[in-house]
Design brief:
Blueprint: E1 9-10, E2 27-28, E3 30-34, E4 39-43, H1 55-76
Antiparallel strand pairs: 1-2, 3-4
Length: 77
């Protein structure tokens, strides 16, 4: 499946509650290893000013980033 085929961006939901008046809610995003450009690519589906995550979700997001970086490293060798 290609990133362009995914439904990304705002969902209109607030699963963790609304942080403040600027909080636009849940965001569906994609993380991929771009082998051609040797980049971990994060696609948000819309312009965003900030991203807030509870600690457990921040750790999970960090793990996904590490996994994609490791994928790039394995692909290079």
């Amino acid at each position: 499946m290609k990133i362009k085929d995914l439904k990304l961006g705002a969902t209109g939901r607030f699963p963790e509650g609304q942080a403040d008046a600027e909080d636009e809610g849940e965001l569906r995003l994609a993380v991929a290893a771009d082998h051609q450009q040797a980049l971990v690519r994060i696609v948000f589906g819309k312009p965003i000013a900030w991203l807030g995550l509870p600690a457990t979700k921040a750790r999970a997001f960090a793990q996904i980033l590490v996994e994609k970086a490791d994928e790039l490293d394995r692909w290079k060798t």
